[in-house]
Amino acid sequence: MTVLAEGSYASPTGQEIVFVLLGVVTLAAAVLVVTTRRLVHAALWLVVAFGALAGCYLVMSAELVAWVQVLIYVGAVVVLLLFGIMLTRAPIGPSTDLDGANRPAAVVVAVALAGVLVTVIVDGFRTAYVPSARASSGAGSAETIGAALFRDWVLPFEALSVLLLAALIGAIVLSRREIGPAETDARRGGGEGEG
Amino acid sequence: MTGTLTSAAAPLAGSFGNLAGAGLAETTAATGAVHGNAWLMVAFPLLGAAVLLLGGRRTSGWGHYLAVAMSLASFVWGVLSFFQLLGFAPEERSRDLHIFSWIPVGSLRIDFGLLLDPLSLTFVLLITGVGSLIHIYSIGYMAHDPERRRFFAYLNLFVAAMLLLVLANNYALLYVGWEGVGLASYLLIGFWQYKNSAAVAAKKAFIVNRVGDFGLSVGIMIMFATFGTVAFTPIFEHAAEGAQGWVTTIALLLLLGACGKSAQLPLQSWLLDAMEGPTPVSALIHAATMVTAGVYLITRSGPIFDVAPEAQLVVTIVGAATLLFGAIIGCAKDDIKKALAGSTMSQIGYMHLAAGLGPIGYAAAIAHLLTHGFFKAGLFLGAGSVMHGMNDQVDMRKYGALRKAMPITFATFGLGYLAIIGFPGLAGWFTKDAIIEAAFAKGGTTGLVLGGAALLGAGLTAFYMSRVMFMTFFGTKRWDDGAHPHESPASMTGPMVLLAIGSVFGGAFLVLGHRFADFLAPVVGEQEAHAFNPLAPASVATFVLMVLGVSIAWLRYGRERATVPRTAPKGSFVTVAARKDLYGDAINEGLLMRPGQWLARVSVFVDNRGIDGIVRSLAAAVGGSSGRLRRVQTGYVRSYALSMFFGAAIVVAALLVVRL
Amino acid sequence: MSLLASAVLAAPAPTPDIPAPTIEYGLLSPMLLVFGIAVVGVLVEAFVPRAHRAAVQMPITLLGLAGAFILTIVVATQDITPASGQGWGKLAAMGSIGIDRPTLFIQGTILILALVSTFMIAERRTDEGSFTAQAAATPGSAAEREGLLAGATHTEVYPLVMFAVGGMLLFPASGDLITMFVALEVLSLPLYLLCGLARRRRLLSQEAAVKYFLLGAFSSGFFLFGAALLYGYAGSVQLGAIARAVRLGPGGQYATEVYGASGQFAQVTVGSNALLMLGVALLAVGLLFKLGAVPFQSWKPDVYQGAPTPITALMASCTLVAAFGALFRVFYVAFDGLTWEWRPMMWLIAILTMVVGAVVAVTQTDVKRLLAYSSIAHAGFILTGMIAADAAGLSSALFYLAAYGFTTIGAFAIVTLVRDAGGEAGHLSRWAGLGKRSPVIAGAFAFFLLAFAGIPLTSGFIGKFAVFQAAIAGGATPLVVVGVLSSAVAAFFYVRIIVLMFFSDPAPDGPAVVVPSVFTSAAVALGVAATLVLGVLPQSVLDLADQAASSLFVR
C-alpha cells in the first residue's frame, strides 16, 4: 500500500469540514460541562460532547467505535451519572459551590496539558495526511475489528474478561451484607423508604 | 565403602615411608566415601558445638559425652582418611575436595574446598588424637565446674576451626579457621571470666592476635592482587613468577600472622597470660595444636618462602631469638604453667627455626611439632593433675616431693620431661637433634649462629625443665596447710599415660628410617636422605649441654640439701628480668600501648570535636530534610496527583534535555 | 466502496471464517492455571457453604500457586528457540506474550513469593486473620461489631489474590503494550479492593484503597497515553516493532501485518521523535508508579500502612517484582536503541528514589510506613542495576528482587504478630524492648532489618553488591556513590529499630507477640532461611539469574 499523494489540508473535502465542525461542537460542549452552574446541565452537556465525538469517529469511518461511543458513553455512562446526581440528592438548580479555590490552578494545568498534547500531535503528524477515502476502506468496520480482536488480540481480550470478573467479585465484596442482625437491616430499609 | 576398606588395608602391609615420590605432587580430585566426605571431620565437632551452645542447659547432663564422641568421630574419620591416602602412590597423595563455590563475586571466586595431603592429615591426626585425649581428660578435670557444657562446646568449636584451618585448600578458608581458633582460644582463656586476670588475659590474647591476623589478611589480599587467586595450588605453581618484592612482602606478612598465633617474637607476650585458662586448654590449644598453626602456615606456604630467601632468614632469626627468649623466661618462672608456657614458646621457636631453613627443615619442624604435641600436652596434663591434687596451687615453691603422692603423674610427667630435654632415645632427642643439625648444616656464619643458639637453647631447656621437675616432685615438702595431694582419677591419668607413650616412642617412629620425611616429601619437597647419626658432633654437644643443664638444676633444686625458699628470693638481675617476661610487656607498653593510648586520646578529641560534629550536623541535616520532605506527604490524594503530574513533567524534561 | 455498499454486499454472504489464532497453551500454562484457580475460587464462593469456604479456598490457592511454579520450571526446562534463532524463548499467543528466561525467572519469583504471602493470608490465629468481616459494613457500626464477633472473614480474598497474581504473571510477559495495559489493570484492580479489607482500622484501610485506586487510575492514564503516542510513532504496539521503529528513526519505513486482515501488509512510516520521547516518558511514568519510584511514590506509605498486612507483603514483594519485570521488558526490548536517551532520566529517578526513600524513612514512626519507605529506597537500588542496561544489570536486579521479596515478606509477617488491643502495634515506640520479651521474633526482625541495610552474610549484601557492581561496570559510578550513601542513611534507621528493640526497656502495657500458627511461622522461617542462604551461599541463585539474564528478553 502506498501513500496516496492526492489531497492536502489546503483543499478540504466535505468530510473534513464536517469533522472540524464536530470537533468545535465537542470542544464547546466540554467547556460548558466544566463551566455550567447546574449539575444536571453539566451531565447533559456531556451527552452533547460524547455525541459529537461519536460523529467524529463516524466521519473517520470507524463505525464500530462510533456506535460503542454512543451506546456506552452517551447511553450507559451519562445515565449512570444522572442516576448518581439523583440518588445523592444533588441540587437541581444552579449552585455556587461547584468551583473550588483551585480553579485557576486547574485552568493552568488543563491548558498546559492541552498545549503539550496538541503540540506533540501536530508536530508528530505534521506531514502525515490520510485522505478520508482511504480511511473508509473498511479498516474501522465491525468485521475488521472483530477479526483483529478474536485473532490478533485474543489474549488481551480474554484477560479483560478476567478483569471484569475480578471487578464483579470486588463489587460483591464491597456491597454485600451477609452478617448482622436482621432487624438492623430492616430498620435501615425502612429508613430509606421514608426518605 | 569396600573400596575404602581395601585401600585402607593395603598400606598396613607395607612400610609407608619407603614410597618416596619425586617432587611436589600433582593435586588430584578427591574421590571415595572417606575422602569425598572429608568435610565431615569439620562438621562433627561443629555440630557438637552447635548442639551444646544452642541446646542450653538441657544438654548439661550428657553434653560432654557428645563432645567427646564428636571429637573421636573426627579422629576415626581422620585415621580412615590417612590410611586411604597411604593407599595412593606418593605423587597422588594430594587430594583436592571441592565442596561448593563459596564467594563467587566478580573475578573473586573462592571455593569451599579441602585439601587432603600428608601434611594436612598429619595435623588432623594430631589435632583429633591429642584433642580427643584432652576431651576425655577434661571430663574429670572440669567435673565440678557448673559451666562444663559451655567448656566442651568451646573445645569442640576449637577442634572444628583448627581442622578447617589445616584442611583448607585456599588461604581464605584457612583464614576462617585461623579466626575460628582465635575465637575459641579467646573464649577459653577467658572461660573463668569472673577472674579479672582471666578476662584481661583473654583480651590481651585477642588484641595481640589481631595484629598477627591483620598481617595475614593483608598478606592474603596482596596474594589475590598478585596471583589473582587465593587457592594453594595455583599460587604455589606460580610463586616463582610473582614480583620478588611482592612475594617477599607476602612471606613476611604470613610470618607476622604466624608470630601472632604461635607467640613468637615480637608478638609473644600473650601466651604466658593465656595460662589463666583451664589447664586442658593450655595443653590442647596453647601447647599442642593452635600455637603450632604458625609453623603449619609457614610449612604449607613453603613454595612462597622458598622463593623469598630474605623472608626465610627473618623466620630463622625470629625462631632462634624466641627459642632463647622463651627458655630464659622458663628458667625464672615459679608458676608451673608459666614455666611450661615459656618452654612452649621456646620449642615453637625451634620449629620456626627449622621451617625457616627451607626444604631441609620442613620435615624436621613438623616432626618436632608432632613429638612436642605429645610431650608438651602430657606435661601440661601432668601439671593439671598436680594442681588438681594441690587445690589449684600453681606455685612450684609450694610443691616438692610429690613423686610419692602422685606416682602415675610423676611417671608420665617424668617421661615427658625426659623427652623434652632430649634424653637419648626419647622423642625429643630425635626431633630436636634433627633441627640442631639442620641449623648447623646451613653453613657459614648464619649456620653457626643459628646452630649455636639452638644448642644453647637445648642446654637451657634441660635446666629449666629439670628445675620444674625437681621443684615439683623432688626435694622437701613445702605444701600449704591443708594440702592433701592425691592421684587424679582414671579419666585424667589415662590420657596422660597415652601421651607419655607417644613421648617415648614417637620420635624414633618418625625419624628412624627417614620415614616421616619421606611421607611429607610430596608436600614439602624432597631432601637428600641422611641417616640419623647419634654420634655427630652436634648431637654430642647437645648431649653434653643437656647433662650440664640437668646437673646445675640438680645442684640448685634437686638434691636433698638444696633448699628452695617458699617465697621467691630477690634473685639476680637476669632472674628479675626473666620473671618479668624479659620486659616484653613493658616494651609493648612503652612502644605501643602508650603511643597507642595517646593516639587514641587524640583520635577521641578529633572524633568528638571534628568528626562527631560533622556526623551530628549531617544527621541533623538528614533529619531536617526528612522532616521537610515528610511534609510533602500531606495525605491528600489531590496533592499526590499533583506531585505525580510534576514528576511526569520532570521525566519528560529529562528525556527531552538529552535530545537538545 | 462506501459503507452502505459494503454492508449490503456482505449481508447475503455467509460470515467469513476468522482463522483461529495460535495459542501456545503449554507456554502459557502457569498463567492459565493461576487464572483457572481464581475462577474455581469464584465458584467455591458461589456453591460452598460459608463455614467451609476458607477450608476449601486456602488449599486450592496454595496448590494452584505451587502447581504454577512447577509448570514454570517445566516450561523453563524445554528447548525453545525464538524465530531469530538465537537465545531462548518465543513470542506466544499471536505475539501478545513473550516467554523467555528472564520472564520465567520473574514469574517463578512471583509465584514463590505469592505462595509465601498466601501463608500470611491464610493465618487465622492472629485476631481471626487480617481481613474484615464484611467490607460493606460502615466502620464503627453495629454491623461491623457483629461481624467481628461472629468471627467472619472474606474468603473472596483468595480468588482476588489469584486474579492479582495472574495479572502479575502476565504483566512482565506482555509482548505488546495493549496486553501490558490489560495485565496492569488485572493486577491492580484486585489489589485496590484488597487494600480496603483490613480487619482493624477500617477507615485507614478504606482511605488507602481509595487513594490507591485514584492514583492508580491516574497512572494508568499516563501509561495509556504513552502507549497511544508510541503507536503514533511506530505504527504498532508490539514491543519488537517499536524497537525496530526506533532503529529506523523518523521517516523510516517498514512493512507490518494488518490486524484483522491476515496476509495483508501495510507500509508504516515511523513518526517524529517528539511522539517517541513523550511516549517513552509517559509510559515510564505509568510503570514507575507501580514500583513506587520517586516522584511517583506518594501512594506507597499510605497504602502500605492502610492495607491488610498480608496484602502489603504481597504488594511489597510480588507487585514490585512484576512492575520491575515489565519495566525491564519495555526498556530492554522496545527502547533498547534509546539507552542513551533514557539513561539520564533513569539516573535522576534512581537518585531521587534512593535518597528520598532513605531520608524520609528516618523520621517515620509507624513500622509499616517505615517498611514502605524502605521499599522505595530498595526500588532505587534495583533501578541502579537496571541502568547498566545489559545482561549483568538484569541478572543483578533479578537476584535483588528475589532476595528482597523474601526478606520483606518475612518482615511484614512479623509485623502481623506484634499486636495490642487495637490490632497490630504499628507505632515504633510500642516495639521498644521487644527483644527482651520475645527474643526470637525480635531477633528475626533484626535479621531482616540487617538484610535491608545490606550487612554481609545476608542476602541484602549480596544483592546490593551485585547491583552496584553491575552499575559500576555500566559506567554509573556516581550513582553507586549515591547508593552507598543512601544505604548508610538507611542503615541508620534500621539499626535504630534494632537498638530500640534490644536496648530499651519494654513498656509495661506493651504489645504482646501472638504465637502464630504454622502459616505465619512458615512465612517468617522461609524469610529467614532465604535471607541467610542467599547471603551465605548465593551461588546457585546468582547462577540462575545469570543464566536467565544472559539470553535477555525475546523480541
Keywords summarizing the entry:
heterotrimer, B: 660 residues, globular, C: 555 residues, 3-stranded antiparallel beta sheet
Describe this structure in words.
The complex is a heterotrimer of chains A (195), B (660) and C (555). With 195 residues, chain A is mainly α. Chain A has helices at residues 14-35, 39-59, 63-87, 103-124, 132-135, 142-152, 154-175, 182-194. In chain A, helix 1 (14-35) runs antiparallel to helix 2 and helix 2 runs antiparallel to helix 3 (63-87). Chain A starts with 13 loop residues before the first helix and ends with a helix. The model of chain A is unreliable at 1-5 and 181-195 (pLDDT under 50). Chain B is mainly alpha-helical. Helix content of chain B is 72%, strand content 4%. The model of chain B is unreliable at 1-25 (pLDDT under 50). Chain C has helices at residues 3-10, 25-47, 50-76, 101-122, 142-150, 157-173, 177-195, 202-234, 239-248, 273-291, 299-306, 309-334, 339-361, 367-386, 391-417, 434-437, 439-453, 459-473, 477-503, 518-536, 539-550; strands spanning 89-92, 97-100, 253-257, 265-269, 418-420, 423-424, 512-513. The longest helix of chain C is centred in the middle third of the chain and has 33 residues, at 202-234. Classes of the chains: A mainly alpha (195), B mainly alpha (660), C mainly alpha (555). At the A-C interface, helix 4, helix 6 and helix 7 of A face helix 1, helix 2, helix 5, helix 6 and helix 7 of C.
Q: What's the quick description here?
A:
The complex is a heterotrimer of chains A (195), B (660) and C (555). Chain A has helices spanning 14-35, 39-59, 63-87, 103-124, 132-135, 142-152, 154-175, 182-194.
Summarize the topology.
The complex is a heterotrimer of chains A (195), B (660) and C (555).
Chain A: H1 14-35, H2 39-59, H3 63-87, H4 103-124, H5 132-135, H6 142-152, H7 154-175, H8 182-194
Helix pairs in contact in A: 1-2, 2-3
Chain B: H1 2-13, E1 27-29, H2 33-36, H3 39-55, H4 63-86, E2 94-105, E3 108-116, H5 118-141, H6 148-167, H7 171-189, H8 196-227, H9 232-238, H10 244-262, H11 269-273, H12 279-288, H13 293-300, H14 302-306, H15 309-332, H16 336-356, H17 359-389, H18 407-421, H19 427-441, H20 444-473, H21 490-511, H22 515-524, H23 537-558, H24 573-579, H25 584-632, H26 637-659
Parallel strand pairs in B: 1-2
Antiparallel strand pairs in B: 2-3
Helix pairs in contact in B: 1-4, 3-4, 3-6, 4-5, 4-6, 5-6, 5-12, 5-17, 5-21, 6-7, 7-8, 8-10, 10-13, 10-15, 12-17, 13-16, 15-16, 15-20, 15-24, 16-17, 16-19, 16-20, 17-18, 17-19, 17-21, 17-22, 18-20, 18-21, 19-20, 19-21, 20-23
Chain C: H1 3-10, H2 25-47, H3 50-76, E1 89-92, E2 97-100, H4 101-122, H5 142-150, H6 157-173, H7 177-195, H8 202-234, H9 239-248, E3 253-257, E4 265-269, H10 273-291, H11 299-306, H12 309-334, H13 339-361, H14 367-386, H15 391-417, E5 418-420, E6 423-424, H16 434-437, H17 439-453, H18 459-473, H19 477-503, E7 512-513, H20 518-536, H21 539-550
Antiparallel strand pairs in C: 1-2, 3-4, 5-6, 5-7
Helix pairs in contact in C: 2-3, 2-6, 3-4, 4-6, 4-12, 4-15, 4-20, 4-21, 6-7, 6-12, 7-8, 7-12, 8-9, 8-10, 8-11, 10-12, 11-12, 11-14, 12-14, 12-15, 13-14, 13-19, 14-15, 14-18, 14-19, 15-17, 15-18, 15-20, 15-21, 17-19, 17-20, 18-19, 18-20
